[in-house]
Amino acid sequence: GDVIHRMLTATQYIAPLMANFNPSYSPNSTVQYLDNGTVFVVQWDQVYLQGKEDMGSFTFQAALHSSGRIVFGYKEIPVPVLQISASQHPVKAGLSDAFMVLNPAPDVPGESR
Questions:
Q1: Contact 61, 17 (CB under 8 A)
Q2: Which among 75, 16, 69 is positioned nearest to 45, based on CA atoms?
Q3: pLDDT tens digits, 48-96
Q4: 94 near 72, Cβ under 8 Å?
Q5: DSSP strand E in 54-91: where?
Q6: What is the top-level taxon of the source organism (predicted)?
Q7: Which residues pair with 60 in a beta bridge?
């Protein structure tokens, strides 16, 4: 849509795994993409969680097909996702196509919610 807001990445995403990843931790960590016209693939390869590098590296990808099909693939998930802390960054997997509607705040003139 036309609305860009500070909560955009929290409300609109395609995430095979969203967490506090730090691709700069290791020279072997990469985030790569490929678009061949029928599928767009993003791969997070050997990425580590910020401050939890001892947990091991994660490798996973998202493939968006021109047909509308979305496929998440997981190669290395060294710990159960439920054990990843969400204190520094939300931990999510999936899709969200939320939207934001600006309504005047009845109790504060000139403000929106």
A1: no
A2: 75
A3: 999 999 999 999 999 999 999 999 999 999 999 999 999 988 899 988 8
A4: no
A5: 58-65, 70-76
A6: Eukaryota
A7: 44, 74
